[in-house]
């Protein structure tokens, strides 16, 4: 029953949000004023190591803290932000908020701790992204952190001249690139060939199928196997149950992420929960030789 009810509730919530927003003027105009009013904020979700579950990084996930509607999840406003180009200043704001908050607390992070941000395809043709990354890393000058950019396939990234140069410069700067939702799109394998990718995040839809039936198990095993053969850092996303975590243990994945380890939370809560519990021996994302 929940399989039917929950997506239904999600759709209903989405429609309700847009009905409420619609009555307050054009969604785009509201997004512009929300940007000026700092209503887009990062929630942070921990990433843990695969063997001892020590926290090694945090993914920033955008939320729209709307004064009337409440907290709006990204699926309901990112597409419009991408189409309108607002995603670029919105992402800059996210990076600034994270560095402003964590740079003064960076001594409480282990060496090699990473922050990752989701980057839209349209942003990958903007050399300004390089400056934003430089500014982010510079804020952590006395306690360096790693910076990871997660690329999805919602919009296609064309390997044009600017993108190629941007990714090359980012690589030189030490910024790591990850493919998000690996296994779902058509182009993640070509991204791996075209760009210097450092990490793959196996999509949560595969993890959700663990323990359901033999065919699903076969698919999950093969997606993980393919990812491992590419010799990149591997993250499994969307782990909710101990059973899923136990199943994945056999694959010796580098990193895990999911509600089982921690939900996305406001920065101050993330700091309260995780900053003093961090394992100093955790092994960070690393650059591996290409397979
Ligand atoms: P994503 O980058 O693949 O992020 C993972 C999503 O799965 C997040 O949803 C997270 O809250 C959720 N999640 C994490 N662990 C679990 C779990 O154990 N079970 C389940 N069921 N879900 C889990 P969220 O925060 O709603 O974000 C959805 C998507 O929106 C993200 O998927 C990403 O593609 C996009 N997004 C979020 N923030 C940004 C952003 O700042 N910029 C861009 N361009 N896209 C963003
Ligand atoms: Mg992501
Ligand atoms: Mg994902
Ligand atoms: Mg996703």
UniProtKB/TrEMBL annotation:
Its main location: membrane. Keywords: c-di-GMP, Cell membrane, Hydrolase, Membrane, Transmembrane, Transmembrane helix. It is found in: Cell membrane. GO terms for cellular component: plasma membrane. Residues 24-278 form the EAL domain. It catalyses: 3',3'-c-di-GMP + H2O = 5'-phosphoguanylyl(3'->5')guanosine + H(+). It is an enzyme of class 3 (hydrolase). GO terms for molecular function: cyclic-guanylate-specific phosphodiesterase activity. The chain crosses the membrane at residues 1-21. The keyword Electron transport does not apply. It is a multi-pass membrane protein. The lineage of its organism: Bacteria, Pseudomonadati, Pseudomonadota, Gammaproteobacteria, Enterobacterales. It comes from Rouxiella aceris. This is cyclic-guanylate-specific phosphodiesterase. Its EC number is 3.1.4.52.
């Amino acid at each position: 029953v929940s399989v039917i009810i929950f997506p239904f509730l999600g759709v209903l919530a989405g429609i309700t949000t847009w009905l409420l927003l619609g009555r307050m003027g054009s969604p785009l105009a509201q997004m512009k004023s929300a940007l000026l009013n700092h209503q887009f904020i990062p929630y942070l979700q921990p990433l843990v190591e695969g063997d001892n579950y020590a926290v090694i990084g945090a993914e920033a996930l955008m939320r729209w803290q709307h004064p009337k509607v409440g907290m709006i999840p990204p699926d309901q406003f990112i597409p419009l932000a991408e189409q309108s180009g607002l995603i670029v200043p919105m992402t800059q704001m996210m990076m600034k908020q994270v560095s402003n908050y964590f740079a003064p607390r960076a001594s409480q992070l282990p060496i090699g701790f990473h922050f990752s941000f989701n980057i839209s395809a349209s942003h990958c043709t903007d050399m300004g992204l390089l400056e934003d990354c430089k500014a982010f890393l510079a804020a952590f000058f006395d306690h360096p952190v790693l910076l990871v950019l997660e690329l999805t396939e919602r919009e296609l990234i064309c390997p044009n001249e600017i993108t190629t140069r941007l990714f090359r410069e980012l690589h030189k700067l030490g910024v790591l690139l990850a493919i998000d939702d690996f296994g779902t799109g058509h182009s993640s394998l070509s991204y791996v060939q075209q760009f210097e990718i450092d990490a793959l995040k196996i999509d949560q839809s595969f993890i959700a199928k663990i323990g359901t039936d033999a065919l699903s198990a076969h698919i999950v095993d093969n997606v993980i196997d393919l990812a491992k053969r590419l010799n990149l850092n591997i993250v499994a996303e969307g782990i909710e149950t101990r059973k899923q975590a136990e199943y994945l243990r056999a694959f010796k994945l580098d990193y895990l992420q999911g509600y089982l380890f921690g939900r996305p939370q406001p920065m101050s809560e993330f700091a309260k929960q995780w900053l003093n519990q961090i394992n100093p021996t955790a092994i960070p994302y690393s650059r591996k030789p290409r397979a």
